[in-house]
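I'm curious: can you give me some protein's one-letter sequence along with its backbone structure tokens because I've never seen that pairing?
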Amino acid sequence: MNKPLRWLIGILVFIAIWQVASLLINKSIILPAPARVFTELAWQLTNRLVWIAALETAWKVLLALILVLLAGVSTGLLLGVNETLRDCSRPIIMVIQAVPVISWLTLVLFTWGPGWEGPVFIAFLSLIPIAILTTVSGVQNLDLELLEMARLYKVDRLSIIKDIYLGSLLPFIIAIIDVTIGQAWKVILVAEYLAGDSGLGVMILSARYEVNAVKLYAITLLAVILGITTERMLKSSLGRVSKRWLSAL
């Protein structure tokens, strides 16, 4: 059985369970039937405003992810090669990890008010510890003999960073994206819902005010589809980049 067929079977089983649960609950405001949600989703996709909202959420996710990768990988590299800095920064990273999202949301509302900055900032703070700690683990797993050989043959520092450090860290960077892309979508949607002025999170909030469960599920389903699509596209692109990079080393 090939992979696409297994995916299709999994989706059909999920829809069947959803349909049975909807019939058992028999309250559309709690769990509407799949057919109603898919019909609503199809109708929503004819609305230009829905596409604009989806694009607004998507670019916030991508911006947050780019910032996390740039800051997280560079900071992780620095901490990975310097034990003193690593030990000094660990309490700060632990504090950032421990602060609840709702506290960051309150700070964002006080600082910027509703807008695009808040969701991106919150997603950045929520995901940056993962990027830093994963990169640190990658640096600590570097081949020390390879580094020693590079120094022995007086390889320039830029080549060491590009070919040895980044080349060895590429699987860890892919792992960071793999873990954070789904989290980024969820955090951005929650932040838009509570502190945003546009995007799919705001549309979910609108559905709540309208007490429209079918619309809420339809927009949520759209967000899930977009999240899975962006994740698959990024992983596929990174896989090709990784192969080209490693073949060039």
Q: What stands out?
A: The CA atoms of residues 79 and 86 lie 5 Å apart. The longest helix spans residues 157-195. The chain has a mean pLDDT of 83.
